[in-house]
Structure formats: C-alpha cells, structure tokens
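Anyone have tokens for Replication restart protein PriA? Sequence:
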Amino acid sequence: MHYFIEVIIPIALPQTFTYKVSEAEFEFIQLGVRVAVPFGKSKFYTALVAEKHHNPPTLYEAKEIHQIIDEKPIVTPIQIEHWKWIASYYMCSIGEVYRTALPSALLLESETIISAKKEVVVTDDLSDDEYLLVEALQQQTALKISEITSILNKKKVFPIIQQLLVKNIILLQEEMVEEYKPKLVRYIRLFPEFNSADRLEELLTILKSAQKQKDLVLSYFQLNASQRRPISVKELTEYSGASPAIVKALVDKEIFEEYYLQHDRVSFDEVKESQLQLSEAQSEALQSIQTIFAEKEVCLLHGVTASGKTEVYIKLIEDFLAQEKQVLYLLPEIALTTQLVGRLTKHFGNKVAVFHSKYSNNERVEVWNQVINSSEKAQIVIGARSALFLPFQNLGLIVVDEEHEQTFKQVDPAPRYHARDAAIVLANFHKAKVVLGSATPSIETYFNAQSGKYGLVELYERFGNAVLPEIKLVDLKDSYFRKKMTGHFSQTLIDEMTEALSNKEQIILFQNRRGYSPVIECMTCGHIPQCPQCDVSLTYHKFKNQLRCHYCGYSIAKPTNCHACSSIDLTSKGFGTEQIELELTELFPTKNIKRMDQDTTRGKYAFEKLIDSFKNREIDILVGTQMLAKGLDFDNVSLVGILNADSMLYFPDFRAFERSYQMMTQVSGRAGRSDKKGKVIIQTYNTMHNTIQQVTTNDYVGMYQEQLYERKIYKYPPYFKLIKLTLKHKDYDKLKEGSIWLYQVLKQQFDIPVLGPEEPPVSKIRNEYIRTILIKIPQEKSLGSTKKTIQKILNSFDAVSQYRAIKITINVDVN
Ligand code: ADP
Ligand code: ZN
Ligand code: ZN
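Reply: yep, here.
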C-alpha cells in the first residue's frame, strides 16, 4: 500500500500536488495541517494538506515531504471550499488564494528572508539551534531560510524559526519595511496598596496639606466609580481640570502609577453594559432586519449618513453573540478602525479582536489562533477585506460596512476578489447572515435589494436632532466671469467659511487630487514633463519642489527651464490639495490648517494623529482627498466645501457618476452631525448636471434609476458581468500583435460583446505597455461555461511561442 497526500502550494499553478508519506505519517496527518515540502530543484514551501489517498501521480514521481508542521488543522474544511469558490469564480489558482489567506508567518518558504530584531536581549532559554541562528543573524543581518538550512545543516528548520518568531527575537523581512507599532496610551491607577475605597480617608490625610493633589485623588475615585474601566491620564486631567504637574507629583509620591496600553487593544476587565437606547426608527430597522433574516440571507441597510447604522449593527451583533456565534465586521479601510474599535469595545469589551494587515505577524497569528479555537477573545473580529480568510468555526453574522467602497475589491495580486461578494458566499457555507450597510449603496447591491434577492431596510433620518445638511451650488463659470474668485475659492465659500470659523466651528474641504498642481507646463512650447517609465505627466509637489510619478514613484527636482525648448516660462496647471492648503494660509492666516492625503498620512500614526487632533478641535480647517469621505464621525463640523465637483464626473469610467454621487454625498455627510444643521458648498461648472442635482436633493433613487437605465443600454453591470483581460509587455509591437490575436479569437468564439484591444488612459507603467480587452457577459449566458472557454483560449494563447512572454491578468467583476 502506498500513502499519498494532496497539497496546496502557495504559487500560481492551477493544480494541487501529490507527495509521498509513510504509513505512520498518513495516520497522523489531518486535513488542514501544514507540511513543508520540496518543490522544483531546491525550493521548499509550506503546503496545506487538502486530501489523503493511495493514488500515485501519473505525470511525475511523488517526492517525500520534509516534515509535518502542525498537529492540528489550522484551516477548516469550509475555508478550503471557500478558496475553491474564489479560485474558480475569480479565475486564479487555489495556491494564490492560499497565499493571500494565510498570515505570512504561517507560510515560511525557502525564499523567506529572516532578520534579527533590533534591541533584543538574547535570553538563556534558547536551544542550541536557536542560539546558533540568532548568532548568525547578528553577523549577517538577513538570511534566506534556504541559507539557514545550510547553516544549521538541517532540513527541518521551520519549527526553530517559528519558535524564534513567537519569542519575538526575529522578524520576517517584509515586516522591517514598516514594523507596525500600535499606538500606546498613558493610563493611570492607584498603587495597589491604596486601591480600595477604605484607604481613601488615609490617603486624604497623607495629602492634607496638598489641596490640589487631594482634589485629584477625589476626582480619580469618582471617575473610577462611574465608569469602571481603565482611566487614561488625559481623561483624568480633563475630568478634574488638574494640570499634568499635579499628576506627576502624585506619581513621584508613589500614590499613582502610570502604565501604557495599546489604544486599539485596551482590555476592559469589567465592561459596564451600555445603556444605549435605540430610537424608534432604529428599533424598527432592527426588527425588520431580524424578520428578513428569517427568510433571506442578506439584508441591505440603506441609511442616510449619521442615521445610526452602527448602533443597529451593535444590537444585531448582541443577538448572535447570545447564540455563541462568531461575528465578522468588515470595513473598507483599516484607517477607520480606531473609531469603530472604540465604539464596539464599549459594548463588547474583550470579545473584540482586530485583524490588521499592519499588525505584526505575531499578532495576526494570535488572532488566527483565537478564531480557530473559538476563543471568547475574538468572538467579534473587525478587519479589512483579508479578515474574510480567518478560520471561523461557527460564523453567525457578517457586517459589511460602507459596502459601496471600491477598496473591497482587490486589484493586485490575484485573487482579484470582491470582499463583499466573497463574504456572502462564505456566509452561505456557514449558514450565516449578512448585513450590508451604506448611505450610498452600490448600484449592484441596490438592484439585488430591489429584485428581492436581498432584503431592504431603510433609515431616512439622521439620529437625534441632527438633520441632513443644506447643499448650495456655486457656479464656477459665473464666479470666474464676475471675478468673484480668490484663487480657487468662490466668494460664497469664503463667506461661509468666515462665518463658521467665527462660530468656532470646523470645516472640511474636499479636493480630489493630491500634490500642489498636477502638471508643469511650458508656456512657450506647451511641453509637459512626462514620466520616462509610464504614460503619465509628472505631478508637481511644491513642498518638496519635485515632480513625481504617482504610478511608479519616479521623481526629479522641479526643472528651472523647459526640457524641450529651454524656455524659463513654466507654469502650473490644475490644482491639488497642496495648493488649496497654501491658498488657505493666505486667506485665513491665523487659523490652523491641515492637509490629509496620501502624502501626509504616510507615517506610522499620521492618519490617526490627524483624526485625533481634528476631533479634539485643534485643527480649524482640514483639506483632503477622498480619505475624508470615509465614515468618520466628527461633532463640530458645520461646513463642508467641495472645491471642484467636475473632475470626478468626467473620469473615463462607467461608474463615474455613481462614484461621484457616492463621494459627494459621503463627504457632505461629515457636516452637521450634532444639533446644528450643517452646510455644504459644491463648486462646479455644471450646476445643472443630473448627478450634481441628485446630490443636492439627496435623491439616491433618482441617481440609481438613471444609472440603471444607462447600464442596461450600454451593457454594464448589473445586467452584464464584466471580465477584463490586461496584457503587458515591454515590446510595443509584440504586445499589439498578441492582443489583436487574442481579441480576434475571443470574438470568433463568442456571440457576446468583446471590446478592445484598448490602450488604457495610462498605457505604459514601469516601461511595460498595456492593452486591455473587455468581455461582457449577459445575465442569461452561463458564466461558468464562458469562463471555461476564456481559459481555454488563454491556454492556446500561451501555446503560441512568440506570445508566451506577454503577461495576462484576469479581472472578473472589474470595478
Ligand atoms: P452612521 O453609521 O449611520 O453614519 P452613526 O452610527 O455613526 O451613523 O451615528 C451617528 C451618531 O449618532 C453617532 O455619534 C452615534 O454615537 C449617535 N447615535 C446613533 N444612535 C444612537 C443611539 N441610539 N443613542 C445615542 N446615540 C446614538
Ligand atoms: Zn518649452
Ligand atoms: Zn512612472
């Protein structure tokens, strides 16, 4: 009898692979455990066991495995089913899904690079091998695992490396680029010997001559009694009005002690059950969702901005926790988590875990283990799209917040999956429910809700006394004509800003472009500097005095004269966030103005810091790109300005109007979240444009119907499924020839629309030329068999020797 296992290897080849094991290993191995396997000439990978059998492979001689890594499965059967679905639906290999699904610390391979952590004290509890490795790393700084294999003269090095990762002594190279250090918050507590109410009197006696210190201690007791959770230094000083010096004095006297907690992982020993009362509208929404869940899997919660959707989710989550189910809360971008984690931990305390691509590998592995063991500590997981791949045991509910956000779709690398859609499939495997939430649902989702496939629940009003902001349009053509513009600001916008500022209210300004101005243009010959590697103009960044490519990062110092004609008459064209910021400092020199875009939020906590100081009202005016549109909740913003609505509208994309509506409505939604009515000023050359009118009147359904009509006529989703093929090659002519060949074969095979081969707006990136082909599949056509045909054609394309070097990527449901 022969014993074989079938494994998934984290590479782009379509099949699984067969390896030989001994009878004892065969008995020991469970499906879902990892094994280290040799592959190719000298590589080895961490593979996952998907099957056990007795059939030798026909095309190759099965090799033996290096070793078994796990005793117990780290992946569930449902996960493997889900991966298979993703691989088949999004047309990629299961190995690629596996690679994306697992934290990289669980996927060590021969090419993985390891280095020693800085400032680590090597303790004496290391084994000989561990010690040898740490020593080697101190001399070499970084080593491939294959090199470690030869240093230790052993094949089985994974456990040693894994141990050192757990002991926090070594790092994977990828982490070194940006080792994520979660934000630490300073907390304060009484020294243990004073930490009970009956010691209070004694304490006050000790402090009898220090009135301010006495007051602070009293404040501490009051705060502690009322909230029963850790007290931060900031909270205490705000509550008591005491200065930091007094806190320090008490710390020096060893009455108080300071300690630090990670901001988003604060643990609450005793959570006070929150007394949250849903409004009538919220309760009705909650009940409707519960009723819908009795017969449908998915429900869309369409509620205007600040209608209190989050609180409805919280009540729903309570239901599922009571049934001991796990809950997944998906967010489009992890930047938002800080606010949400705060809100959820208030209700659920320790049961909330965050799965964050920026967390260290250790922390990700920790959450992974908690989820597979159904630990209390991760009953609710908050995360961006990759949290979908955690090993849930009994998932009950998935919340997809801001479901319209395009960042739910992964673009590169494969799998190019949409987390919302993949979440619905995952829920199906678990017999779990899904709630999709948004103030501006995607056309597809609203279509599914209208057709009855999903339930639909709506919230039309903001929570409490808050009302939706009033939206005013400013006609830019008219304003320029009447010379009522200062830089890019209309007089109307300046007046409204002046008023808001005099009321001590805050302002958000939205400009959909970063940088100072997109391009530098020669006034003599019209030359605009281009990126030498990409088909785009370079963007001017004033503060660094640079021209930069936003696609590949190429940069040069700003030229003093034209590279084409040497003229020194250069001018900047267009405008971005940086220029707006500059104009603002001239308009409002005494105000604190900050900019939020990819350039200012690159640093470790830059985003959180900006949000925090804006929330604390240290910033008067915040200028930013679409980052500002993301579900943030500020209570003192009375004015939102959109500087130029038109650049979004004319983006060459079938979703341009849908996206413009979503973006403008979401940014507007940041205004007037508390008692006062907010205002929004939209500057545009097209005041009568339908989309702008729909935003102004908050007419989501109008936007939806108009767009749906267009989608039908022009053959786009939800009526047609789109598959985009992207071809890339360094040789322009070869690419052109190959893409025409592929287009013609597709065209011959199908009686459905095949478009292209097109040169996209950016037709060269990093010296590779790009062509795209778009295939539109009508609803009545079988998606599965169409994909099979496409795959067959791609295989024959690959068989043509002169085209083999052309890289092709497949994007199903491109968006
Ligand atoms: P949405 O997610 O729909 O934009 P939020 O859930 O952020 O809205 O709610 C808007 C504001 O109203 C938040 O500050 C939230 O704390 C508050 N809020 C919502 N519902 C309630 C409630 N039932 N009781 C008290 N405050 C609420
Ligand atoms: Zn010139
Ligand atoms: Zn470039």
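Residues 176-182, 264-273 have pLDDT under 50 and may be disordered.
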